[in-house]
C-alpha cells in the first residue's frame, strides 16, 4: 500500500495478534496497512506451546514475514512487552526493511541483561 505506512504489530508473551483488536482498525481507517502476527504457539498459530523449543521457534513467524517482504518495502515495526525482543532481532536481521521501530512498554535487549530477565 503506497498511500499509507505498513504497520507490523508484534504481541508479547501469552497474547496473540488478537490483542491489537482496537489499534488495528484505527490504523486501517487512517489509510495504513496493518499486519498483526501470531507468534509461535500463540493465537491461532498452528504450533502448540509445547512444540516451541526456543526463542527462535517463537519468533519464526515474524522472521518469515520479514523475509517475505520485497527488498524495497519498509514497515513500522511495533512491539509490546516481550515482543520487543522480536522487534530487536528483526531490526538486526532486516535493517533495510524497517523504517522505524516502536517499543510499547517492551523489552529492549542489552548486553548485560539476558532476555529471561523480563520473565
From TrEMBL:
This is Uncharacterized protein. It comes from Vaccinium darrowii. The lineage of its organism: Eukaryota, Viridiplantae, Streptophyta, Embryophyta, Tracheophyta.
Amino acid at each position: 500500500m503506497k498511500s499509507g505506512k505498513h504497520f507490523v504489530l508484534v504481541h508479547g508473551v501469552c497474547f496473540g495478534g488478537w490483542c491489537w483488536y482496537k489499534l488495528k482498525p484505527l490504523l486501517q481507517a487512517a489509510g495504513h496497512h496493518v499486519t498483526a502476527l501470531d507468534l509461535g504457539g500463540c493465537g491461532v498459530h498452528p504450533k502448540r506451546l509445547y512444540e516451541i523449543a526456543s526463542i527462535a521457534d517463537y519468533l519464526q513467524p515474524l522472521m518469515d514475514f520479514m523475509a517475505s517482504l520485497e527488498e524495497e518495502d519498509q514497515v513500522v515495526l511495533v512491539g509490546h512487552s516481550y515482543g520487543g525482543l522480536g522487534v530487536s532481532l528483526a531490526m538486526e536481521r532486516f535493517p533495510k526493511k524497517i523504517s522505524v521501530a516502536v517499543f510499547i512498554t517492551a523489552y529492549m535487549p542489552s548486553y548485560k541483561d539476558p532476555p529471561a530477565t523480563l520473565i
